Recover the amino acids of this structure.
């Protein structure tokens, strides 16, 4: 098993999607849509009505294993960037972060970058899963997001 020193603490994947940034961002910023594009089948469901609009908001998600997560929005630029840090209910975020950056190529195409950063993760119980999160896993979510965005 690789040690923490052998594994990058920031991984990302990038893809150009044949859809406008606004359409893609709606799929990301609405937690109820996230299980549809989660390429790792980790997300179970999220209540509707939680569409993110600003830093400081918290949205909830039930994972596929039944665990509840509160996701604290730490970066937000409408249509361009969103990042959140997961936490157990009522707890401070553990330090890992999921982020999405959207860069319009033109009116109908967007370059999307998905990043997982566990640089500040302090909960050692989460290290194994963090080490196992690869750019291929992020790419799987990008592929499913692409399929949804290009057909809606």
């Amino acid at each position: 098993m690789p040690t923490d020193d052998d594994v990058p603490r920031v991984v990302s994947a990038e893809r150009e999607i044949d859809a406008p940034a606004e359409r893609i961002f709606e799929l990301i910023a609405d937690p109820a849509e996230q299980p549809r594009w989660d390429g790792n089948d980790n997300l179970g469901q999220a209540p509707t009505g939680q569409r993110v609009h600003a830093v400081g908001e918290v949205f909830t998600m039930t994972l596929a294993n039944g665990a509840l997560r509160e996701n604290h929005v730490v970066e937000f630029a409408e249509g361009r960037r969103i990042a959140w840090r997961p936490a157990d209910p009522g707890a401070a975020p553990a330090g890992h972060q999921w982020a999405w950056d959207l860069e319009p190529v033109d009116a109908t195409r967007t370059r999307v970058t998905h990043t997982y950063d566990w640089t500040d993760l302090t909960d050692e119980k989460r290290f194994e899963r963090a080490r196992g999160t690869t750019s291929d896993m992020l790419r799987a979510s990008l592929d499913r997001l692409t399929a949804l965005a290009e057909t809606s």
Notes: The radius of gyration is 15 Å. The chain has one domain: 10-151. The chain has a mean pLDDT of 94.
